[in-house]
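note to self: dont lose this again. the chain is below, predicted strucutre after it. 157 aa total, dont forget to put it in the shared folder this time
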Amino acid sequence: MKRILVILTALIGLGFSVNAQAIIDKGTCGDNLTWILTGTDNNLTLTISGTGAMANYDMNKSPWNSHRKNIATLFINNRVTTIGKSAFAYCENLTSISIGNSVTMIMLNAFLDCNSLTSINIPNSVAEIGEHAFGNCRSLNINKHSQFGYENSRLVF
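---
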C-alpha cells in the first residue's frame, strides 16, 4: 500500500492527473506525450499529459478515434505545447475542455465539428490557431485575449 501511495505521489508531482475511475484505454500521442481515457458509457474523460507537441492526425485517425463519440471532457495538462491537427475532430459530445497554459498552438481542424462544445477558455499562451480549428462548432463561445474573436462560425484575428 505504501508503495502505491509513493507511485501516485510521484505521478502527481510530474503533472499527471490521477483519476479514480476505470481506465478505458491509453497510449501515446507525441514523442513525450501520453493519453488516458477514463469514465463510463458516453461520459468519458480524455487526459493528455507529458511534455511537448501532440502528433498531427488525418481525419478520424487519432488514437482515441473509436471512443470519440463518447468523450465529454478533455484535459490538456501543462507542458503540452501544441494541440495536433484533427486531434479532436468529430468529438460530437465534447462539452468541456481545459487547456494548459503551456499550449502555444492549436493546429488545423483540431476541434472541427465538436457541436456540443459551448465555450472554451483559450490561455494567453496560445499565439497561433490553425484554419478551421473550431470549424462548425455552431454553439461555441470562445473566451480568449482580445487578439482572437469568433464570428460566423470562424475564428478571426
